[in-house]
Amino acid sequence: MRSVELWMQDLKIPALFLRGDGGVSPRPVPGFGTFFYPDLEISEFHSRYLAVEVKFIRDSDPSGSISKALGQALIYRAAGIPLVYVILIDCRSRDRSSSDIDGVFLELAKAFSIHLVYKSPSAIMRRVGDSDQAAAQ
User: Fold this and answer.
1) What string of DSSP letters covers 67-82?
2) Are 80 and 41 in contact (CB under 8 A)?
3) Which of 20, 37, 52, 119 could serve as a FRET partner for 67 with CA atoms 20 to 30 Å apart?
4) How far is residue 29's CA from residue 52's CA, in Å, rounded to a whole number?
5) Which is more confident, 126 or 1?
6) Which of 32-36, 38-42, 101-105, 114-118 is predicted with the least confidence, judged by mean pLDDT?
7) CB–CB of 47/34 below 8 Å?
8) Distance separating alpha carbons of residues 96 and 29, to the nearest angstrom
9) φ/ψ bin of 57: left (φ > 0), alpha (ψ from -120 to 50), beta (otherwise)
10) pLDDT for the residue 109
11) Torsions phi, psi of 14, nearest 5?
């Protein structure tokens, strides 16, 4: 989150406001008689520019996490938020790759201009290990 704060400071737009991740809570997005809260929101006065939904996919309910992430992203887009990201972090015991993401999910995300980021722990660890090795050389 600190890197997002620094990026926003570099933009030098004083009215931009970051909400979420332990700070001020994102504003609720109404839908279906209830409220949804993105994990992260960037807004300016009453205009929302970015919503980010993060879900951890676990062995106990993988389809629930995935469907919640996509459903919330669709609600944020329907509410007029122009830039919506879904970050899926796959913590299931069997490692998967980004190629495991179903094509229907990708097409739906594309159709509604939802940006998808998918990471498995081994991919994250490989990336961290690769950069550590490069720094050591």
Assistant:
1) HHHHHHHHHHHHTT-S
2) no
3) 20
4) 13
5) 1
6) 101-105
7) no
8) 32
9) beta
10) 78
11) -60, -25
- The tokens describing 104, both together, are 């229907």
pTM, whole model, 2 decimals? Answer: 0.71
Quickly tell me which residue has 């309910």 as its tokens.
61
Q: Let me know: does 118 contact 88? Beta carbons within 8 Å.
A: yes
Per DSSP, what are the bridge partners of residue 55? 88
Give the domains, in start order, of the chain with CATH numbers.
2-136 (3.40.1350)
State residue 36's pLDDT score.
93
Of 113, 124, 115, the residue nearest 91 (C-alpha): 124
- What tokens does 93 get? 């015991």
Angle, CA 25 vertex, CA 22 and CA 29 arms, to 5°: 140
Whole-angstrom Cα distance, residue 1 to residue 9?
A: 13
